Amino acid sequence: MATQETLYDQLYRLDGQGYGAYKSIKGEYDFGDFGLHIDHVQGDPFAAPSRVRVVVPQPIAAFPQSLWTMPCRAIALADYLTREFYRATRGQAQRSGSGKSGQIDIVRPSQAVLNRSAARVTSEAVELRFTVGLPAFGRRIAGRQAAELLCEAVPELVAKTLVYVALDGAEIQRHVDAVEDAEALRSQLTDHNLVAFVADGAILPRRSGVDEQPLADQAIPFQSPASLRVTLTCPHAGAVTGMGIPQGITLIVGGGYHGKSTLLRAIEAGVYNHIPDDGRHQVVTMPAAVKVRAEDGRSIAGVDISPFIGSLPQGQSTRSFSTPNASGSTSQAANIIEAIEAGATVLLVDEDTSATNFMIRDRRMQALIAKDREPITPFIDKVRQLYTDYGISTVLVMGGSGDYFDVADTVIAMDEFAPRDVTEQAKAIAVEWRTERDREGGAHFGSLTPRIVQPDSIDPSQGRHSVKLRVRDVDQLQLGTEAIDLSAVEQLVEPGQVRAIAAAIVYAQRYRMTLTTPLPDVIEAVMADIEQYGLDSLTEWPMGDLVSFRGLELAAAINRLRTLLTV
Question: What global pTM score does this model have?
């Protein structure tokens, strides 16, 4: 293995040469306290930056064994180190030059603690992956600046962020313990017949719609109503009290701007662990909870939406329904069926993002439009059947229709961000003010038929590239020549999840899809491979910008591919 001095001298010799000469530095270098791996060298100063890894042997990094022996604690420690490195790189001034010269970047973490390919902690070493913009003036190598960047700046960053004695041990402990506590809280939900838990003292409001940090001023700490308060136990925080949301059908009601949607957003984010200062680090939800909504204009491929929508005009069947341009009600029906097919056990629904005619058909409309002229069976008549037939719970924000009182098990009213258990009042109102509406859609939910995807309907190629993937934030990815709109897949929180999903779609198409394998089995197999072999199993070479995702979001992305065909 070459040394730090070798790399320094080599970069000086390259000074002034054409940018392509940088290719010669690809390889591994011994820096004494760590190894530097230059895995990919960019071909142009304006191209994607070069990919670099540092590997610090555990005897040098010296992180206490208690911080990384459990999988959830190792992920939490890696998350902490990624954040420290990210903060350190933000404080560095960009060096002069063309294109991305001098930039050192690592994947930007969200408020969630996720398994990212950017960092890994094992008994042997701490590994961190990041990118470096190799310096240039025009398209000529700036060798001296490159030597300073790789041989001086990078070692400084490693010494400051990847060695235990240089960091705040108490803060690391707090970070790792909070994640283990969240895992412990989530593991107790099933035993308590809960789908979610919101701890007393949690801060649920966010700063804005584009800033997920907790609201600093005027935020009201969450306080559970006594009737819904439960106590769970954490290995570090001890006994934690809070509001348990039971299995079954839960309504969240209240006036506008009183916190209904804020509570639901905290619940949907509770499928992930969060950093200690997030305010929601003790808000946990069942891992297979899925937010569903209407999604006008999305494509649908071969979905059996007949539980919600019967035969359409001109006798069109809905048992294998396809359209390139779904309506609000049709898209919401498909979103629910697809989520269930992918393994959802809890549905999260907000009236504000739902199709009105999908959610309710009141008595007056039933009197005006006969059922034989209305193919849609509203959600109100299916939500109970989902639970009784398939054990799927629903948490529903509802501010405009009291008809749902008839089917709810629990009703929570939000009043100035304070929850109240109003179940008994809601039930009494339902008895006193009967809706007289007719139940629609039969006695059972209906059949659920897994689909089989035609593998050749997924084509990641573009031009001379056999695989071409592009990601724009968390709302869209480009797979070959096709754009996949993910703006309605609301539980994606980092662009790295979308990058990993894009790679997983290609992996699934190549290795797991057949003309006889149902889509749920494909998703399960891909997720099992990632669990066994890591995110690196999805790519040809080590990447530092992949972030863990759920099979539910992988299925959602596949289902939104407009070229998708089913068998």
Answer: 0.96
